[in-house]
Amino acid sequence: TRTQYPGAQLNLFFMDYGHQRGQNKAADTAVLRTRQDAWFDYYLKGVGRAPSSGQVETLTKVCGSPSDGPYFAANWAKVAPGEVRYDSADAQTIVPVAGDPTVGQAFDPITGGGACATASGADQPGTATYRLPAASGSGYTVMGSPTVVADINSPGPFSQVAARLLDVAPNGTETLVARALYRPDVNAGSTPTRQVFQLHADGWKFAAGHVAKLELLPNDAPYGRVSNGQLPVTVSNLQLRLPVLERPNGGAISSPAPKVVPPGFTLARDFAKAR
Q1: 198, 99, 197, 93: which is closest to 154 by C-alpha?
Q2: How many CA atoms are closer than 13 Å to the CA of 117, on its beta-carbon side?
Q3: Phi and psi at residue 217, in whole multiples of 5°?
Q4: Confidence at residue 257, expressed as pLDDT on a 0 to 100 scale
Q5: Could you give the CA distance from residue 234 to residue 215 in angstroms, rounded to a whole number?
Q6: Between the ranges 11-20, 193-202, 266-275, where is the mean pLDDT highest?
Q7: In 3-state terms, what secondary structure has residue 84?
Q8: Do the Cβ atoms of 17 and 29 come closer than 8 Å?
Q9: What's the rounded mean pLDDT across residues 16-32?
Q10: What's the mean pLDDT in 70-91?
Q11: Closest by Cα among 99, 113, 106, 103 to 161
């Protein structure tokens, strides 16, 4: 839109609303409707002041209390000025039949327990699992799309990697923060290829004592169907990047690393300008 209509007046608004597992909190929808009313009042009725244009506004997903925010940024690239990174060189293999179906059922968007459903936070055998250090101090707030960069060896043309980012509470239960289904590149031999993919964007606070856990599975049923012909997938030299609302603090939160852009792709406009 910006390329074809550079003068267009655009804002972005993201909240826990309007989709399966969305909580649609009354306070959140009231903020949205206030922004919508102001926009239509000015541009359709000629009433009031021109709304601020070109900004991004976000609210977080919160269970059991009001959402945090709103938070504002000039564009999507500036929504998350900090980044929490985790590296693991060890190779882990995703076994075709791994995964506890009761956990998948709890997090299903249609028949599951909703946005605040919990399940056992125990690691599931046969999956590739990565646990970050427990959040400390005031914690950190994921704001955007978690990114996975890893060496992946996937010999089968029909295999998938189902990714879940989870918040493991001190009591041992976990809550789903973000997920994705990824079809990795096919490797003819045993040499992996460096690949990158992102999970769905979210706004979520990891409070002190809570652990961010990345789980890579062969499927995420019933949210996504099981692939025909799933084969073992090996993941090594993995880096998880969590975009966060907080600024670098010399500790767990760093400045965002340069984006990994696969051959043949280009960065979205805002990120390209921010480099």
Answers
A1: 93
A2: 20
A3: -125, 170
A4: 96
A5: 13
A6: 193-202
A7: strand
A8: yes
A9: 92
A10: 96
A11: 99
